[in-house]
Amino acid sequence: MPDVDVAVIGAGAAGLSVAAICNNLGLKVALIERGRMGGDCLNYGCVPSKALLAAGHAAAEARAAARFGIRLPPPEIDWAGVRAHVRGAIERIAPNDSAERFRGMGVDVIEASAHFLTPDTLEVGGRQLRFRRCVIAAGSSAVIPDIPGLDGVPWLTNETLFELEEPPGHLIILGGGPIGLEMAQAHARLGCLVTVLEAAPRIAPREDAELVEGLRAALLRDGVEIREAAKVVAVEPLEARSETPQAGVVAVLEDGSRIAGTHLLLAIGRAPRLASLDLAAGGIAASPRGVATQADLRSTSNRRVWAVGDIADPEGIGPRAFTHVASQHAGIVVRSMLFRLPFTRVDYAALPRVTYTDPELAQVGLTEAEARERGIAGLAVHRWPLGENDRAIAEARPEGLVKLVVDGRGRLVGAGVLAPRAGEMAGMFGLMIGRRLPLSALAGLVLPYPTLAEAAKRAAGEYYAPKLLSAGVKRVVALLRHLP
User: Fold this and answer.
1) Predicted local distance difference test score (pLDDT) of residue 247
2) Residue 76 annotated as binding site
3) 199: containing domain
């Protein structure tokens, strides 16, 4: 006889959502977490990083106030106060994810490690736990690269960065993806020297190259040094000297150049937390990318098991390390596991992603390059610069761009935005792509004036402008003008 209906391994965003829904539907649920409730997002990722970015944004706005005719002294950075703000954000959200809250709901919260003994049994904290169904939501952690010398120097990941009691003197960041760029800008705005080393030809390699140009310019204005196509071949310890009073690390690049800093942040990617689960004992197929699942997130080899969040590797689709994907996965698992609904499957066609720098870079659906690689018929790209947006002009922030990728039938297949709070527009584009709405829906949308979102509407209007101003339409208007 099973001990529980559903065993959930991991109390991050995905695991908490699955546990809450299953419990509310009357199932007996065990929620197993060996670390902090709330997982990476609350404790080491989304929440602390956005809190630190907000502090950096406040400092940057104080420095730039003169553009409004307001003159302020240079901001003084109180690092202890910044850390208190970051901790306060975590502490305010933490009760929603706490063991006490979930136990109050009736969930059996077990604070221990778990690993599989058999296809339907876990060992949890020294005892056996049999389940009808199991959901693996163990998440991911920062990739630790195999770089000569790394074991001889101190380094940071997102799990340790926010514990620094003093600001880094010179932060070297390996990786120019979202985490690396966000932390680069936040620390630069808070008075730290920052160097980003990206091995690929450009930073943010997954994002639209045209939008990345504007983001790069913004980071450089904030004082971030960016080295692209910069492969690190070794790291060495840096001893404190009179000219470098803080000990640190030296990054040795493939071209022979050496960059010395006080701290090294590893931000080159994420890897699923598989090692401690003993998936083989559970008959669960996996790869270095994660737990192998069907499109409905059910294990390809153990029909009692599902995987959600960063650790899930749906066949033909691959993993996505976003908190909002974890929430999406929870809904899919409920439909698949509990209601046995057919044709339930992961679909990332309208998946948004945002790099939360200032300006933010948001992308929904395909980039222009991805759309061209797929050979989409009748592909068209329409842009509207923020320099032509009244709200951006009023706020003296005219740098940025809205870029729409449209197929031959006039449907949006991708949208990219570089703008302050660009992520706030992502939902609008996601709805259009997900519901396959024609671009006319956006072009005809009535938006409040003045807003940055009007740039999206103007970009959509560019698709119809040639049709509305065609010779045929002008002839019709000329004929109709004679009517009373």
Assistant:
1) 73
2) no
3) 150-269
Whole-angstrom Cα distance, residue 232 to residue 255? 9
How many CB atoms within 10 Å of residue 361? 26
Residue 50 annotated as binding?
yes
* 256 belongs to an annotated ligand binding site: no
**Cis peptide before 48, with omega less than 30 degrees from 0?**
no
Q: Are residues 297 and 191 in the same domain?
A: no
Shared domain for 242 and 225, answered yes or no, is yes
Give the pLDDT score at 484. 78
Check the annotation: does 424 bind a ligand: no
Task: State the chain's mean pLDDT as an integer.
Answer: 94
DSSP designation for 469: T
**pLDDT at residue 242 above 60?**
no
C-beta atoms surrounding 454 within 10 Å = 20
Nearest residue to 319 via CA among 284, 278, 273: 273
Total domains in the chain come to 3
Q: Which tens digits make up the pLDDT trace of 94-147?
A: 999 999 999 999 999 999 999 999 999 999 999 999 999 999 999 999 999 999
| Euclidean distance between CA atoms 333 and 379, whole angstroms | 35
Q: Is the entire prediction scored with pTM above 0.85?
A: yes
Distance CA 393, CA 452 (A): 10
Say yes or no: 334 and 413 in one domain: no
Residues in the chain: 484
Q: Is 152 known to sit in a ligand binding site?
A: no
User: Do 312 and 414 fall into the same domain?
Assistant: no
Residue 164 labelled as part of a binding site: no
Q: Give the residue carrying structure tokens 């090692």.
A: 275
How far is the C-alpha of 40 from the C-alpha of 97, rounded, in Å? 12
Residue 375 marked in a binding site: no
Please say if the pLDDT value at position 474 is more than 70. Answer: no
Query: What one-letter code names the amino acid at 197?
Result: L
Q: Would you say 368 is a known binding-site residue? A: no
User: Residues 63-88: what's their mean pLDDT?
Assistant: 96
Asked whether residue 164 is assigned to any structural domain, the reply reads yes
Q: Is 398 annotated as a binding residue?
A: no
Are residues 421 and 455 located together in one domain of the fold? yes
Round to whole Å and give the CA distance between 54 and 126.
43
